Amino acid sequence: MSKLITCIWFANNDGEEAAHYYIDTFNSAPGDHSAKIGDITKTPKAAEDVSGRPEGSVMTAEYELDGISFMALNGGPVDQFKLNGATSYIVECETQEEIDYFWEKLSAVPEAEQCGWCTDKFGVTWQIVPRILDEMMRESAQKAEAVTKVFMPMKKLDLEAIRKAGE
Predict the structure, then answer these.
(1) Of 74, 81, 77, the residue nearest 56 (C-alpha)
(2) Residue 20 sits in the same domain as residue 35
(3) How far, in whole angstroms, is CA 136 from its chain's centroid?
(4) Strand-pair partners of 31
(5) Cα 150 from chain centroid?
(6) pLDDT tier at 2 (50, 70, 90 boundaries)?
(7) Number of domains comprising the chain
(8) Count of CB atoms within 10 A of residue 94's CB?
(9) By C-alpha distance, which of 68, 60, 79, 67 is closest to 8?
(10) Phi-psi region of 47 (alpha: psi -120 to 50; beta: other; left: phi over 0)
(11) Are residues 75 and 10 in the same domain?
(12) What kind and span of H or E run contains 131?
């Protein structure tokens, strides 16, 4: 695992399930994606009272998605640690097939969908975007305007429509 690790607090104690879901999602994805599970840490007796988790239950699950390290923490329902869209994970895709695949796997809250952003069944927010989008946005103000006008009303992004707008 890298030295910088994103820790995601899971209030419903489904961190290990989420880690395995993300690993399966990335390992089954079209294109050049990879994922692996790391260490699973069990709750020690000394942490039972503070964590509200029984001894031996999963406390953390470490995993890696496309070379980025994560830790799922079964932290329990603490108001200040609820997941929201203020933090999202960007999945850059080369093809519409990749966009469609990740959208199908990671979008579970239709009302949260907007211009490539979606929220999964665990409450984690993702951005499923074509890799060329950032490049197109930087190329010129005119291209950025045309591309933005096309993708802003979309939910799942349409790579071909974005490409055409950038021409």
Answers:
(1) 74
(2) yes
(3) 23
(4) none
(5) 23
(6) low
(7) 2
(8) 14
(9) 60
(10) alpha
(11) yes
(12) none
